[in-house]
Amino acid sequence: MDPFLNFKISMVAASRCFNILLRCKTTFIFSSSLVRGLGNRVSIPHYRPHNYFTCVHLFCPIVSKIVGNYNSLATQAARDDEGMADEFLNQILATYRNAPNSTAERNQVDLSFRIFKDLLVFHGPLTLTCYLNLARACADTNDCTALIRYVKQVSDLAFPNNMIVINRIIFAFGECRQIEKALLVFNQIKGFGCKPNVITYNTILDILGRAGRVDEMVLEFTSMKEAGFVPDFITYNTLLNNLRRVGRLDMCLVFFREMDDSGVEPDLLTYREMIEAFGRSGNTREALRLFNDMKQRKIRPSIYIYRSLVDILKKAGKVDLAMSISQEMNSSTPDLFGSKDFKRKRR
Fold it and tell me: In the record, which residues are listed under signal peptide (predicted)?
């Protein structure tokens, strides 16, 4: 048999097993059935929802063997561990990006979206890893028409939370550096029957900014305001951070002032970006002005801002002022934000 045809049959069989497994987690009740395409027929007994983990234990060896990951997955799927079961479901999706040859590319994307849709419908809210795996599966496809069709199907299934899902798909494409695909989905949002929101625009601004396409980022920001959306502090911080990285300090100051004039309160991260930007450019006067402005607004500085400012002043030859700032930092240390305050809490 053609190896690629055999691969396709195996993947379809895995998808069928996976679909039944997901359905067993919901309130569906199944009669005995057969899963074809495994070489031999596999009887799937009657399982009620409370026996979901028994189903995981049954299907894990079947599906894992097909995708060539039997040992690592089968040993991890515990009957009574929901976390492990969910991890198994996610790993199934991840395997679809490992097609054996570019000939299977179209099949790979199709199956990945099929599994993703099953997860979305029967498994509930999905993890970021799941979205990233979907984006990686699309890395080698240039069929924009098919991609939009798949995303439209996902959007329809996700209603009324379709904009949340679309935002996460755009974010995942951005994280995987598939910028054009992220922009393609963004530009087709209205065709999905959805309306973008501030989160959508913030995501696109960050994707463009991190890619160094700051002119496009600024144009998209203008479009955002023209569409009637009100930028928030995340919007402005995204602009400032990416403009700082490419040395556009003049524009940083413009947007910082616009932020203030719009009534959007700058936060600690806003000031940190601005102080470091002007300090490193040699404009210590503006860096100090921003530092004092931050304290006047009752925003407690972080230890990183103090250390950065001390280093900036020393390099500028302003040793006495650097020592003064250092003493202020040491006397305020117990009240300063440190590394523990910036660590992301596990959820």
Answer: none
